[in-house]
Each structure stands twice: as C-alpha cells, then as structure tokens.
Amino acid sequence: MNQAHLLAQFKKMQAEMQKAQEELANTIVSGSAAGGTVTVDLSCDQRVKRVKIDRAAVDPDDVETLEDLVAVAMNDALSKANETSQKRMASATGGMRIPGLM
C-alpha cells in the first residue's frame, strides 16, 4: 500500500470515529435499581441526563439505602453506556483496537 492510500483510509476512519462520538453523545441508556425505584439516564459519553427516585424509596431515617440504590443505578447505566460505546467505536474503527478509545 502506498502512503496516499493509507492516509485516505486514516481520514475515513477519523471521520467515522467523529460521527460515532457524536452519535454516542446523543444516545441515552438507563440504569436502574430496586425494580426501577431509582433510575439514571446517561448519555454514552457518560453525562448524567436524569436521576429519577420513586417517593417510596425516600426514607429520612434510612438515607444510606437510597444512596446505595443511586450508586447501583449509576453503575448499571455506566456499564450499559460503556458496552454501547465499545460496540459503536469498534464498528467505526473496523474492529481495530486503538488505545484510549476501547
């Protein structure tokens, strides 16, 4: 392969990666805990969009349980966002693993 061909392929992959990053910023995943009592909506670029807490989960005498539920829902959303991001970026890079992206 010549350098011009490699450069063209690189620019195409770079454009695909940019497009994938924009799509991921607009893709929302939800994580939940306790059967949906606490839900967290997160973009796949890992920005919290919404936290919803059912009134039944709010007990002023047991704040620790609510804190735990928020953490579980957040971790669930992060896991889903990471999985979605890895799949999308793998398709943008043709499966090539690039350090820092995956």
Q: How would you characterize this protein structure?
A:
This protein is of the alpha+beta class and 102 residues long. It has a single domain, classed as Nucleoid-associated protein YbaB-like domain (Ybab, Chain: A, 2-Layer Sandwich). The protein is 52% helix and 18% strand. The chain is built from 2 helices and 3 strands. It has helices at residues 3-25, 63-92, and strands at residues 28-33, 38-43, 48-53. It has a 3-stranded antiparallel beta sheet with strand order 1-2-3. α1 runs antiparallel to α2. The mean pLDDT is 91.
Short descriptors:
alpha+beta; three-stranded antiparallel β-sheet; 52% helix
Write the layout of secondary structure elements.
Layout: H1 3-25, E1 28-33, E2 38-43, E3 48-53, H2 63-92
Antiparallel strand pairs: 1-2, 2-3
Helix pairs in contact: 1-2
Total count of domains: 1
What fraction of residues sit in β-strands? 15-25%
CATH topology: Ybab, Chain: A
Question: What is the CA-CA span between the terminal residues?
Answer: 27 Å
Tell me the radius of gyration: 19 Å
Helical content class: 40-55%
Counting DSSP E segments of at least 2 residues, the number of strands comes to: 3
Average per-residue pLDDT, rounded, comes to: 91
User: What spatial order of strands do you see in the largest sheet?
Assistant: 1-2-3
The helix/strand order is: HEEEH
Secondary-structure content class:
alpha+beta
CATH superfamily annotation: Nucleoid-associated protein YbaB-like domain
Which CATH architecture is right? 2-Layer Sandwich
Count of discrete alpha- or pi-helical segments spanning 4 or more residues? 2
CATH class: Alpha Beta
Q: In this structure, how is the largest beta sheet organized?
A: 3 strands, antiparallel
Low-confidence stretches: none
Bulk shape? rod-shaped
